[in-house]
RPA49 polymerase
Amino acid sequence: LFAQMDLCIEAFGTSKQKRALNSRRMNAVGNDILNTAVTKAAADIIDAKGVTALIQDVAQDDVQNISIFLPPCNEDADKPENVYKFEDILSPAEYEALQVPAAVFVNMTSEEITKKTEDKSHCSFVLEELKFLPADEKRRDHKARCLWFLDTLIKFSYLKVIKKKHPMGPECPHIISRKLMKNFTSLTYNNGSVQNLISASMKTKITAYVIALALHINNFQTDLTVLQNDMKLQESK
């Protein structure tokens, strides 16, 4: 069975799967007779199922894996804002809860923004966008809420193991803390206790949501370099 999977990985696997397969083969003791027999068995299975069906299986797996990390995607969207809907990033209840903590952004003066830039108390993306808050009260409040949550999401990505019930501080609404813990951490067991961990895959998920939210904030054009620096990601990532 493993050899059959190897043959499928070799033909249709991801780069990561192929690297793992090559590494395992290099460390394995070769057996030409067995390899020949297994290769024939795997080829028979491929012939029986069909290459098209196998490719469809792999494609479906890829879609399922990607969907774990991205916000729900509407492939039939008629305009950019409907591809990754705002409500799938922030629910109405979560959005409502952001009004109080985001008020500090709404009323921030240019002098305060300059001081916070020097202190690096907020992400570069957020500090730059605070300079261009709309004059209209409703739009100003909306952008402030989005920026506050984006700033919190990026800072949350810096953590490793979550040891506090409210890791982002008392000013973070309970519903937002619960969202962060539920959607952007993995459960792990350590010394007999359950811990919430921000794994590499969870940081990938956070990155995807940060980009989607940044696109909503910036009318669907944004500078990924700024976000990359804020999230402390390597360029290759």
Summary: The mean pLDDT is 83. The longest strand covers residues 186-190. Strands lie at 161-162, 186-190, 193-197. Residues 1-50 form one domain.
